[in-house]
């Protein structure tokens, strides 16, 4: 049996009109997740593209054997990296703020935006990322090495090490320079990705501190934004719900963003469903089935902390 209806009072009509106007002005949580996620990745790509161009211009005239020239490059390069990271972090924090606010939780996230974003272990305490600085093993210059300093200034010395190693192995100057440029671009891309993740994790935890109805998050995939094609691991991992304290696992050139989950809403699940349905249709049945069969596991990387890797077969 339905409740009897009655005409709205003037004041009630005003409230309804205001609600309708607000609904038109602010998109649904699902639409907000999609729009905010795309804006976050676009901002990161813009920052990375700018940083890559600036670093390439600085690096090309440097003599990798000249300590003075290399020191000058490293100092300037670290500033460029930090500038790109700041733009990326602010966009990521704004993205989380927008989609959380669409759930009725007013948030203006404040990323701590650390200068150095690499760490083998990261914890979020009171909405601020705490990065470990213990020694790690990384691969560069053709070998695995124990590294105690993975600050921006330290990693900006790696292109020179790659160049010198390539020459020692018989590479031409052109080949060695290209290898060093490739490493420089990868370092830049990785740092922007790490800056995004730190800002997202801080924003989610700040939102949780404001409202305990936020219970976790899920990763939101963007196969249309991936330069290397859709990542099967990310697609499979998008079905998982993460706790607020879980660090988002990533991989090289990962374009996933995050979406908060509350006790009542999981807009990221719907956003993924829409994007993946369209992607599967365009990709074709064979490729779609292959992606769906992909398996992954979460490992700990020397400088990236939690990472997605293909599941090892016994």
Query: SSE string, helix = H, strand = E?
Result: HHHEEEEHHHEHEEHHEE
Strand order of the largest sheet: 6-5-7
Number of domains: 1
Estimated structural class: alpha+beta
- Our count of helices gives 9
Helix content range of the residues, please? 40-55%
Q: What is the CA-atom radius of gyration, in angstroms?
A: 23 Å
Ends: how far apart?
A: 60 Å
Strand content: 5-15%
Rounded mean pLDDT score: 84
Q: Outline, from the CA principal axes? A: globular
What characterizes the major β-sheet? 3 strands, antiparallel
Structure commentary:
The chain is of the alpha+beta class and 314 residues long. The protein has one domain. Helices cover 53% and strands 14% of the residues. The strands form four sheets. It has a three-stranded antiparallel β-sheet, with helices on both faces. Strands 1-2 form a two-stranded antiparallel ribbon. Strands 3-4 form a two-stranded antiparallel sheet. A hairpin with a 3-residue loop joins strand 8 and strand 9. Helix 3 packs parallel to helix 6. It is globular and about 60 Å long. The N and C termini lie far apart (60 Å). The N terminus is likely disordered.
Summarize the structure.
This protein has 314 residues and is of the alpha+beta class. The chain has one domain (28-310).
Topology of helices and strands:
Blueprint: H1 10-25, H2 29-59, H3 67-101, E1 122-125, E2 128-131, E3 136-140, E4 143-147, H4 152-155, H5 158-168, H6 173-210, E5 214-220, H7 232-237, E6 242-243, E7 257-262, H8 267-283, H9 285-292, E8 296-301, E9 305-310
Antiparallel strand pairs: 1-2, 3-4, 5-6, 5-7, 8-9
């Amino acid at each position: 049996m339905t409740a009897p209806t009655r005409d709205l009072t003037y004041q009630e009509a005003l409230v309804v009109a205001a609600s309708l106007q607000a609904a038109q002005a602010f998109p649904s949580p699902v639409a907000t997740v999609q729009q905010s996620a795309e804006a976050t990745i676009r901002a990161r790509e813009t920052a990375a593209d700018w940083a890559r161009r600036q670093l390439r211009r600085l690096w090309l005239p440097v003599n990798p054997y000249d300590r003075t020239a290399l020191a000058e490059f490293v100092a300037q390069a670290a500033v460029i990296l930090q500038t790109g990271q700041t733009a990326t972090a602010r966009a990521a924090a704004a993205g989380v703020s927008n989609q959380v606010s669409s759930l009725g939780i007013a948030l203006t996230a404040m990323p701590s935006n650390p200068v150095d974003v690499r760490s083998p272990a990261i914890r979020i305490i009171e909405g601020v990322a705490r990065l470990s600085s213990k020694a790690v093993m990384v691969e560069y210059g053709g070998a695995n090495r124990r590294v105690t300093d993975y600050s921006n200034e330290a990693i900006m010395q790696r292109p020179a090490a790659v160049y010198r190693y390539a020459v020692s192995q018989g590479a031409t100057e052109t080949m060695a320079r290209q290898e060093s440029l490739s490493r420089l671009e990868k370092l830049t891309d990785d740092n922007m990705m790490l800056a995004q993740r730190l800002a997202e994790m801080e924003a989610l935890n700040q939102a949780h501190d404001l409202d305990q109805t936020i219970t976790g998050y899920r990763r939101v995939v963007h196969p249309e934004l991936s330069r290397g094609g859709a990542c099967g691991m990310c697609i499979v991992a998008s079905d998982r719900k993460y706790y607020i304290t879980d660090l988002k696992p990533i991989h090289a050139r990962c374009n996933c963003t995050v979406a908060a989950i509350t006790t009542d809403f999981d807009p990221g699940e719907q956003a993924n469903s829409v994007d993946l349905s369209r992607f599967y249709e365009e990709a074709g049945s064979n490729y779609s089935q292959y992606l769906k069969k992909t398996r992954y596991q979460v490992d700990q990387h020397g400088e990236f902390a939690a990472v997605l890797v293909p599941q090892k077969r016994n």
